[in-house]
Amino acid sequence: MYSLFLAFANAIIALRIISSLLCSRAMELHLHDIHHYLKSHARRTIEDAGLRRAAVLILFYPKDERLHLLFTKRTSTVEHHKGQISFPGGRVDDIDESFLDAALREADEEIGLLKEDIAVLGRIDDMQTKATSPLTPFGGIERLKNA
Predict the structure, then answer these.
(1) Residues linked to residue 73 through DSSP beta bridges, in sequence order
(2) How many CA atoms lie within 13 A of 67 on its CB side?
(3) Fold type of domain 2-142
(4) Domain residue spans of the chain
(5) What tens digit of pLDDT does each residue of 55-109 get?
(6) H-helix or E-strand containing 61?
(7) Rounded distance, CA 67 to CA 113, Å?
(8) Sign (positive or negative) of CA dihedral 116, 142, 36, 69
């Protein structure tokens, strides 16, 4: 749970930094810079083919000219992690071609957000949590819809 707390704390810090950098006119430039940083960042990965893997989206969405961070609350009827606050995502299944595919599939299943509506900013460091086996997070932002 401590590792998950750190992930949330880091996401909130990232949200504050990104929100302070972005304004509606310059959003594309700054998102490009974030994407470039994540692409060139030497990520910490956890490699162990024997472990069950999970992938999540740390998803920002624009509202009222500010970026917000999306969390979900798991229902009390699911098999695992009942009532927990989480990022959209979950287990990497055999049908998934990559960790990113798993995170995008799970976001669609959990909150109905299509992969076409997400601009993926990049992969973030893998982490180990007590709740899951290794977790691979991706940063993303919901694309603005044409009015």
Answers:
(1) 85
(2) 26
(3) Nucleoside Triphosphate Pyrophosphohydrolase (3.90.79)
(4) 2-142
(5) 999 988 888 877 788 888 877 887 777 778 888 988 899 999 999 999 999 999 9
(6) strand 54-63
(7) 17
(8) negative
Any idea how long the chain is?
147
A 10 A CB-CB count for 43 gives 12
Q: Which amino acid is at 25?
A: R
| pLDDT tens, residue by residue, 100-111 | 999 999 999 999
Cα-based angle 109, 67, 142 (whole degrees, multiple of 5): 35
d(CA 79, CA 74): 10
Note the pLDDT tens digit of each residue in 113-131: 999 999 898 888 888 776 6
Work out the number of other CB atoms within 10 angstroms of the CB of residue 1.
Answer: 9
State the pTM of this model: 0.73
Contact 89, 56 (CB under 8 A): yes
